[in-house]
Structures are given as structure tokens and as C-alpha cells.
């Protein structure tokens, strides 16, 4: 992967992780962790050996300072990381159920990541960018929505490949029409989603492969479908540079501590593999499943992100 051949776009926020599982109203203490799906992807790509550019915005406050320090510590270039003097940093309080799955309560009304500005990433900066990853949360609010949609249009015109993750969080849309997510999915080359997300976007199919095929019929040439502990599915049409394919890979069993960021680990591995030239969807899914499983063994979405050697050794050990 060439340095800075990837641009990540979206939110950076603080995850407040509960010390104990249960309803949020019953949790007495939390651990502060850096989060936001795009930020997690950027940090994990950096650990995999890239230096992805990252366009995001945090508040000019203590939480924003913490996030900027964390991104720098993780090796993420901060050229397009802005600190907003007039807005706070987004907070997300997480609740875990008994299986360590999570739900979110966001404090995000007018916060910095909702205020991305059109033109922050100039068109000439897209000239050397091969992949642009966009997370769907940033599309839930203006002016960030318009700014990011403008970037997608300019990146497409510049010949960049678009990787989109809807990251559906219904509580952020507050009953608003979320059709913009389906529009963004149509404009993508690669779409990563869960089964539930594809159905929320209006796609229909009885099997994972049928859901992927339905999504591809509207634009993307490749879909990566995550299915939790069951593993993942990769589907590509004949329009994909790597050719037509439909594959499934089982997940890896681990002692789960926190699933926050596991999907982002999957994204970073698929995106990193594509950007470095991998074309075998089965191998890409194997690495991505391993990266997600490793993530679930730690608390926090950016903690101890693995390099490629660790991902490969993890997968190989569990396949013996």
C-alpha cells in the first residue's frame, strides 16, 4: 500500500464504556476511550502499515485534545483533522448486554463532527488518493452531510474508489428520512454492511448472497456483509476489478470482552487488503474476520490494534 493512498472521512468521538453490563441507568462508572467508526478505521489502518489521511472535526475542549493526542499516538496524519472553537466534542455512552453486545446513547446536538465544511479537503489533494472511505454517521446532520456528499462527488470525478459503511444508528436520525444512506450506497464501489443494515436500506433477499446481489444491482460492484459470530460474506459482480465472486468465511471463536469497534476492524482489514492489491475475496474475508475477532478481545475500539503479522498468526493458530 502506498503511503496516504487512503482518505478516511467521518466522525471522531469519545466512547464512554461501562464498567459492568446492564441498562445504562444502572451503570455507575465508565472508561473513556477514543472512538467513532472512521477514527477507528484510520487508527487500525495505521497499525497495518499505512498512513491514511483523515478528515474529521473535534471540539476545542479537553475531549478534543484527548482525541487529537490519541490519533497522533496511533500514527494517523492530522492534515485534515480540525478543532472547532465553537462546538463541543461528541460523546457516546455505551451499554453492554450480557453477551457484551452494545447499544449507544449519543450527545451529538451541534457538536464538532456535525460541522464539517465543504472544501476542507481540496480537489488537488485527491490526486494520489486511491480509496475514500466514508462512514454513514456523518451523513445524519448538516452541514456535514452536504460537505461529505460534495467530497464523494469530487472524489468519484477524480477517479478514487469509494468504500461506504452506512453504520446505521437510528437514534441519530430522529425519524428523519435516511434515504441519503441508500443514495451513498449507490454511489459506492464497495459497500460494507450488516444483514440488518441492508434490510434497513430497503434491500430484500432470503440469503446473505441475495441481499448482496440486491445491493449491487444499484451501484456497488462489491459488498462485504458481516454476520457477527457466524462470519462474513463477500460478493462481487463482473464489474469488480477482481472479477465476479461469492464467498463466505466462518468467524473465529474468542472470549468476547467488547464488540465496540469489531466492525471497524473488519473494515480496516478489507480496505487495507484491497489498497495493497489483494484480490482474493476469500483471503480478504479471512483476514478481516481475524481482525474483528482480535478487536473483540479488548475493551475499546482503538486499543492494541494489530499489524498484518498479528492478524495472520491469529488466523493461522485457530485454523490448526
Q: Provide the structure class.
A: alpha/beta
How much is the radius of gyration in Å? 18 Å
| Total strands | 13
How much beta, percentage-wise? 15-25%
Structure annotation, total helices: 10
- Going by CATH, the homologous superfamily would be Ribokinase
Distance between the termini: 29 Å
| Oligomeric assembly | single chain
Shape category:
globular
Low-confidence stretches: none
Spell the H/E element sequence.
EEEHEHEEEEHEHHEHHEEEHHH
What is the CATH topology?
Answer: UDP-N-acetylmuramoyl-L-alanine:D-glutamate ligase
Mean pLDDT: 93
Helical content (DSSP H or I, runs of 4+): 25-40%
CATH architecture: 3-Layer(aba) Sandwich
Largest sheet geometry: 9 strands, mixed
Within the largest sheet, what's the order of strands? 5-4-1-8-9-10-11-12-13
List the helices and strands and how they pair.
Layout: E1 6-9, E2 13-18, E3 30-35, H1 37-47, E4 53-59, H2 62-73, E5 81-84, E6 91-96, E7 102-107, E8 131-135, H3 144-157, E9 161-165, H4 170-173, H5 179-187, E10 190-194, H6 195-200, H7 208-216, E11 222-226, E12 232-236, E13 245-249, H8 262-275, H9 281-296, H10 308-318
Parallel strand pairs: 1-4, 1-8, 2-6, 4-5, 8-9, 9-10, 10-11
Antiparallel strand pairs: 2-3, 6-7, 11-12, 12-13
Helix pairs in contact: 1-8, 8-9, 9-10
Amino acid at each position: 500500500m502506498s503511503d496516504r493512498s487512503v482518505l478516511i472521512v467521518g466522525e471522531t468521538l469519545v466512547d464512554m464504556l461501562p464498567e459492568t453490563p446492564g441498562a445504562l441507568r444502572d451503570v455507575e462508572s465508565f472508561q473513556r476511550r477514543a472512538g467513532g467508526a472512521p477514527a477507528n478505521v484510520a487508527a487500525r489502518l495505521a497499525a497495518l502499515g499505512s498512513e491514511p489521511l483523515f478528515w474529521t472535526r473535534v471540539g476545542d475542549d479537553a475531549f478534543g485534545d484527548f482525541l487529537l493526542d490519541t490519533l497522533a499516538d496511533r500514527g494517523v496524519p492530522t492534515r485534515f483533522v480540525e478543532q472547532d472553537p465553537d462546538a463541543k466534542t461528541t460523546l457516546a455512552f455505551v451499554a453492554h448486554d450480557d453477551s457484551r453486545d452494545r447499544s449507544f446513547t449519543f450527545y451529538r446536538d451541534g457538536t464538532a463532527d456535525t460541522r464539517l465544511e465543504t472544501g476542507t479537503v481540496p480537489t488537488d489533494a485527491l490526486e494520489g488518493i486511491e480509496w475514500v472511505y466514508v462512514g454513514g454517521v456523518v451523513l445524519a446532520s448538516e452541514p456535514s452531510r452536504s460537505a461529505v456528499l460534495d467530497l464523494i462527488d469530487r472524489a468519484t470525478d477524480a477517479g478514487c474508489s469509494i468504500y461506504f459503511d452506512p453504520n446505521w444508528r437510528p437514534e441519530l436520525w430522529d425519524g428523519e428520512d435516511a434515504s441519503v444512506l441508500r443514495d451513498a450506497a449507490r454511489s459506492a464501489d464497495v459497500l460494507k454492511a450488516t444483514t440488518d443494515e441492508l434490510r434497513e436500506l430497503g434491500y430484500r433477499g432470503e440469503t446473505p448472497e441475495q441481499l448482496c446481489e440486491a445491493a449491487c444491482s444499484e451501484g456497488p460492484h462489491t459488498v462485504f456483509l458481516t454476520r457477527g459470530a457466524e462470519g462474513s460474506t463477500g460478493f462481487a459482480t463482473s464489474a469488480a476489478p477482481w472479477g465476479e465472486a461469492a464467498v463466505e468465511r466462518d468467524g473465529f471463536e474468542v472470549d468476547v470482552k467488547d464488540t465496540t469497534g469489531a466492525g471497524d476492524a473488519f473494515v480496516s482489514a478489507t480496505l487495507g487488503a484491497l489498497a495493497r492489491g489483494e484480490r482474493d475475496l476469500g483471503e480478504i474475508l479471512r483476514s478481516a474476520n481475524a481482525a474483528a475477532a482480535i478487536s473483540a478481545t479488548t475493551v475499546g475500539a482503538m486499543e492494541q490494534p494489530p499489524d498484518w503479522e498479528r492478524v495472520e498468526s491469529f488466523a493461522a493458530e485457530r485454523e490448526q
